[in-house]
Amino acid sequence: MRARSSQTKTRSGRRTHRWGSDFLVFVRKTASLPSLTAPAPGPTVARVISEQTHLDAARAGDDAAFRQLVDPHRRGLLAHCYRMCGSIQEAEDVVQEAMLRAWNGLSTFESRSSFRGWIYRIATNAALDALRRAKVRCLPPMLVAAARPDAALVPAPTEPVWLEPYPDALLPDEASSPDAALSQRQSVSFAFLQALQRLPAAQRAALLLKDVVGSSASEVAELLDTSVPAVNSLLQRARTTLGTAPPPEPADPDEAHVVQTYVRAFESANVDVLVRLLRDDARMSMPPTPSWYQGRDAICDWLGHNVLTSDAAGRFHGTRTRANGSPAVLMFGPDGALFGVHVLTLAGGRIDEICAFMQPSVLRFFESPAGRDGSSNP
Question: Are 187 and 83 in contact (CB under 8 A)?
Answer without folding.
Answer: yes
